[in-house]
């Protein structure tokens, strides 16, 4: 079962308002949005809001920008991961006071949860008579403590709406320090310092912070709202504002995702590598074999687990292999892993295979571009079925041939061989996944190449109903 925490929205709450789409951003592809020539707005009072889900942390990159503004991007909000960050992956705030860079401070909390959505709000009012109230940060509806390095000078201009009109989303203005992950419901409100209740609310039953409809929110002269609903133009600004669209930098239609704050999708757990340091990219949906090839098995698992004995439905996901696998220098292991096997060490892969709940792709003459379907049939005697290009090739049954399922199982992938890719599809496919058909699960969720055979996509709406 999925565990819910108040501090991070995992998207399984019945909201009354659904977010359909998000934008998937990948630093390896230099993907970000940028606008120039925007009309001048209120440079002293404004609010920026965004829902986001991270997919790379502790990756050695100094910063991952949520947004920046000004001709040189001196105004910025970003995650920082270096010796300057207290604990790593903290949020830093820089504001440009009339072309004078000022480091406002840091949120000394590590934001490393890659299984959940965060709602981030920064609200600025340099006219406020109380210095500490001129810059406020909220995460999931709760105001955060800023460890101030400095405060904004009263009545200073911050260049958020200067006549140059430059603003970027998902990177610094020059395209550096790109964000890795998903973004949804990006809003800039011009001329108002708002609280997070303009954008979300606490669920009455669970106390979890959830989004609400912002389409009718007053945005001011230079504000904007983006919901990424148009895959042909993911820089589109919604109607009702005075703003033009954002330019796309290396963003394609495949970067539109259905992984959202109201239906969170399973991804690979970037914080847990069972037997090696995988390269996990494309929205945490691609696992690539590390340098060294040969005998290196690099295992990882999904962020969502299923109890195969107590779930009321079956579950389905897909994987595409990038090259033909030989079993010697290149191979991909596919299946499910027991919670009890999620330990570090060289025996993890062999233990999984010995359980009989995974299989080498090379054992079926796998070719480049083959797509595997993984169906978990739940009940008193769970069964895993593997399909290659929609043909059943392997069945693993609890209690038969030494196979034994746990009460909590996670999707599992292991990759052997340098530059071998396993491309995943739990709800929406990795950008490089070859989708031509567009099949959905019985609830209408997912975008699968083949019929999921009654199985449901691994997402929180399904987990909340059937998990």
Provide a descriptive summary of the structure in words:
This protein is mainly beta. The chain has two domains: 22-257, Sandwich (Jelly Rolls), CATH 2.60.120; 279-466, SPRY domain (Jelly Rolls, Sandwich), CATH 2.60.120.920. 3% of the residues lie in helices and 32% in strands. It has two helices and 29 strands. The chain has helices at 348-355, 460-466, and strands at 22-25, 32-35, 45-54, 63-69, 75-80, 90-96, 101-107, 118-125, 135-139, 142-143, 147-148, 167-169, 181-190, 200-202, 209-211, 224-226, 247-249, 256-257, 279-281, 286-288, 297-301, 315-321, 331-338, 358-360, 371-377, 383-388, 391-397, 409-416, 421-425. Strands 1, 3, 8, 9, 10, 13, 16 and 18 form an eight-stranded antiparallel sheet that branches. Strand 25 (371-377) and strand 26 form a beta hairpin. Residues 1-8 have low confidence and may be disordered.
What is the strand and helix layout of this fold?
Blueprint: E1 22-25, E2 32-35, E3 45-54, E4 63-69, E5 75-80, E6 90-96, E7 101-107, E8 118-125, E9 135-139, E10 142-143, E11 147-148, E12 167-169, E13 181-190, E14 200-202, E15 209-211, E16 224-226, E17 247-249, E18 256-257, E19 279-281, E20 286-288, E21 297-301, E22 315-321, E23 331-338, H1 348-355, E24 358-360, E25 371-377, E26 383-388, E27 391-397, E28 409-416, E29 421-425, H2 460-466
Antiparallel strand pairs: 1-13, 1-18, 2-12, 2-17, 3-8, 3-13, 4-5, 4-12, 5-6, 6-7, 7-11, 8-9, 9-10, 13-16, 14-15, 19-20, 20-29, 21-28, 22-25, 22-29, 23-24, 23-28, 25-26, 26-27
């Amino acid at each position: 079962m999925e565990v819910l925490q108040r501090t991070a929205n995992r998207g399984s709450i019945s909201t009354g308002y659904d977010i359909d789409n998000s934008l998937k951003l990948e630093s390896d592809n230099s993907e970000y949005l940028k606008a120039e020539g925007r009309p001048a707005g209120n440079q002293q009072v404004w609010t920026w809001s965004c829902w986001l889900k991270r997919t790379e942390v502790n990756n050695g990159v100094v910063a991952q920008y949520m947004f920046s503004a000004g001709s040189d991007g001196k105004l910025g909000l970003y995650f920082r991961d270096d010796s300057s960050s207290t604990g790593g992956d903290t949020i830093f705030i820089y504001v440009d006071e009339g072309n004078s860079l000022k480091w406002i401070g840091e949120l000394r909390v590590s934001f490393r949860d890659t299984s959940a959505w965060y709602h981030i709000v920064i609200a600025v009012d340099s006219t406020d008579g109380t210095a500490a109230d001129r810059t406020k940060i909220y995460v999931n509806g709760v105001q955060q403590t800023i460890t101030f390095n400095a405060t904004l000078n009263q009545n200073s201009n911050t260049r958020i709406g200067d006549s140059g009109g430059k603003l970027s989303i998902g990177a610094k203005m020059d395209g550096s320090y790109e964000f890795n992950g998903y973004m949804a419901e990006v809003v800039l409100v011009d001329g108002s310092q708002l609280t997070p209740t303009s954008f979300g609310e606490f669920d009455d039953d669970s106390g979890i912070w959830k989004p609400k409809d912002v389409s009718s929110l007053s945005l001011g002269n230079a504000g904007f709202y983006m919901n990424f609903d148009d895959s042909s133009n993911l820089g589109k600004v919604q109607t009702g504002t005075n703003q033009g669209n954002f330019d796309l930098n290396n963003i394609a239609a495949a970067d539109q995702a259905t992984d959202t704050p109201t239906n969170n999708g399973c991804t690979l757990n970037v914080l847990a590598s069972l037997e090696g340091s995988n390269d996990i990219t494309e929205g945490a949906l691609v696992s690539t074999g590390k340098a060294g090839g040969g005998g290196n098995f690099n295992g990882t698992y999904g962020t969502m687990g299923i109890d195969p004995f107590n779930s009321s439905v079956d579950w389905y996901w897909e994987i595409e292999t990038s090259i033909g696998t030989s079993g010697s220098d290149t191979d991909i292991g596919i299946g499910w892993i027991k919670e009890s096997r999620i330990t570090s060490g060289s025996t993890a892969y062999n233990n999984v295979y010995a359980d009989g709940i995974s299989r080498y792709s090379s054992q079926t003459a796998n070719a480049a571009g083959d797509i595997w379907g993984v169906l978990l049939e739940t009940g008193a005697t769970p069964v895993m079925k593997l399909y290659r290009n929609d043909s059943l090739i392997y069945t693993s049954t609890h209690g038969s041939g030494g196979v034994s399922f746990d009460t909590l199982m996670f999707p599992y992938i292991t990759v052997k061989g340098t530059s071998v890719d396993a491309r995943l599809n739990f709800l929406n496919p990795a950008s490089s996944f070859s989708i031509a058909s567009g099949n959905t699960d019985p609830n209408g969720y997912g975008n699968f190449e083949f019929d999921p055979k009654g199985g449901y996509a691994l997402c929180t709406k399904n987990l909340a109903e059937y998990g």
